[in-house]
Amino acid sequence: MNDERKILERVLEEATGFLNDLPGRRVAARTDVEGVATALRRPLPEEGAEPLEVIEELIAGAEPGVVAMPSGRFFGWVIGGVLPAALAADWLTSTWDQNAGLLASSPAAAGAEWVASEWLLDLLGLPGNSAVGFVTGAMIANFTCLAAARHDVLRRAGWDVEGDGLHGAPPVTVIVGEERHETVDVALRFLGLGEQRSLMVPADDQGRIRLDTLTDILAQVGNTPLIVCLQAGNVHSGAFDPIAEAVDLAHQYGAWVHVDGAFGLWAAASAQYRHLVAGVERADSWASDAHKTLNVPYDSGLAIVAKAEAMYAAMGVHAAYLIQDERPDPFSTVPEFSRRARGFPVWAALRSLGRQGVAEMVERFCRHAHRFAAGLAELDGVRVVNDVVFTQVCVSFGTDEATREVATRLLRDGTAWMTPSTWHGQAVLRISVSNWRTTEEDVDRTLAAVRRVLAEVRAG
Ligand SMILES: Cc1ncc(COP(=O)(O)O)c(C=O)c1O
Fold first, then answer.
1. What residue numbers bound the domain in which 300 lies?
2. Is 423 close to ligand 1, i.e. is its CB under 6 Å away?
3. 260: Cβ below 6 Å to ligand 1?
4. What's the pLDDT score for residue 223?
5. Does residue 1 have a pLDDT over 60?
6. For ligand 1, what atom is nearest to the CA of residue 233?
7. What phi and psi, each to the nearest 5 degrees, are found at residue 242?
8. CB-based burial, 393-414: b 16+ in 10 Å, e otherwise
9. Are residues 268 and 240 in the same domain?
10. Which residue's CA is minimally distant from atom 12 of ligand 1?
11. Cβ(358) – ligand 1 distance below 6 Å
């Protein structure tokens, strides 16, 4: 057997062992960061080692520190899972090692991205001629879309922001919701639009923007270069901004409307949940993640812009040594030059699930979220604090102290993984369902763990 085959077979054995063990395995890691670093640390070796030896050392040192994020009982943050076809396509992505920047550099990567883009726009109900950038995640998708927005609103005001920057430019007004995701602010910071200059629309009890205040703010700012950021899927409540009304209102003032739908945009794939994103197709740009709801391995974000020229103007690159023709190269849609061929696993996920499979997966996530909410609401003194409309559940165990203690002990217990947070001034335990592997049994085992830990906390 040649060495490459031997090492890949060893990795195959490790990977299948890991996946097979997931149902029984604790989600929590068995060691901490120091434990892993100590195991892997040695003075930088003067001489190399055999690849197989390297991989054995990596497995021995790092695997104890692996949190079982692909487990069906991982409900922290919004993490997603890994579909088998997407995982296998991801292995091929590394094996083929394509630089996906240019059409000429990889017909394979570009062709797969063309088709994945067509399928995504169809599935999400977005304009078919939109440009799609395969970026690292929703934060960079927000950045990419807002760069296109900045280009367009300033171009309409007679300003070339790519050429002249922001020095002396007409001011751009950005309107955001009170409960926007933090990464929208980071994107605005990267773009020189400032994190703190945005006008903020207060949120209602579920975290949705209040239309009455949006109306007032728009009337005050009038027709200036204007960007309005909406959200499809609040990270605590799962709630969706009133998108149709907000888009139409903002468009009356000539605004570019951007929607951060990192995990929530996928509601569009389900007939049962599509109403949550009604009107979303009338926005100008959308940020989402394939590594969340679509269950593609990290990293896989999607930046989608209806006015493709605005995206090409903001992101495009020209250099004499590249082989470019009149068609836009993939790097015209992302803030990267060289990059991984992220389209392969996205294509594979969509091909393996089909339209129906994506819809069923989204609906299953929501069913599990409701099962959690019902199971928790039955417990004495426990309160689900959000309206469960999608995949997110936030729960309070009576007092902030008790909630924090339950969250801390649950992480230590390791049966499942849910993350603590503060929402509307109150400590909560957040539960986010986003993994295709999660079964009703996983939900029930997790509920049993919560009951056990709560009893311990109450016993003192
Ligand atoms: C609404 C929203 N926007 C943006 C992000 C950032 O996504 P990413 O971690 O893929 O950059 C998240 C992450 O959970 C999110 O929920």
1. 88-349
2. no
3. yes
4. 86
5. no
6. 1
7. -70, 85
8. bbbbbbeeebbbbbbebbbebb
9. yes
10. 262
11. no
**Beta carbon of 262 within 6 Å of any ligand 1 atom:** yes
Question: Residue 78, Cα to own-chain centre: how many angstroms?
Answer: 7
Helix (H) or strand (E) holding 227: strand 226-231
Alpha-carbon dihedral 135, 138, 139, 140, rounded to 10 degrees: 20
The whole model's pTM is what? 0.97
Instruction: State which of 78, 243, 394 you would mutate to test the pocket of ligand 1, scoring each by most atoms of that ligand within 8 A of its C-beta.
Output: 78
In this structure, the answer to whether residues 150 and 7 fall within a common structural domain is no
Q: What's the rounded Cα separation, in Å, for the pair 396 and 374? A: 14
Does 168 map to a domain?
A: yes
CA 191 / ligand 1 centre spacing (Å): 18
Total residue length of the chain: 460
Among 415, 402, 405, smallest CA distance to 446 is for 415
242 lines ligand 1 (CB under 6 A): no
Neighbour tally for 108: CB within 10 Å: 16
Tens digits of residue pLDDT in 128-165: 999 999 999 999 999 999 999 999 999 999 999 999 99
CA 131/CA 143 separation, integer angstroms: 15
In angstroms, the CA 416 to CA 23 distance is 11
Ligand 1 center to residue 136 CA distance, Å?
11
- For ligand 1, is residue 185 a contact (CB within 6 Å)? no
CB 78 less than 6 A from any atom of ligand 1: yes
C-alpha 295 to ligand 1 mean position (Å): 14
How many domains, in total, are found in the chain? 2
Instruction: Pinpoint the alpha helices (H) of 63-106.
Output: 84-96
Tell me which residue has tokens 């050392």: 57
Whether 280 and 166 map to the same domain: the answer is yes
Residues sharing a CB contact under 8 Å with residue 161, sequence separation 6 or more, in sequence order = 150, 151, 154, 155, 169
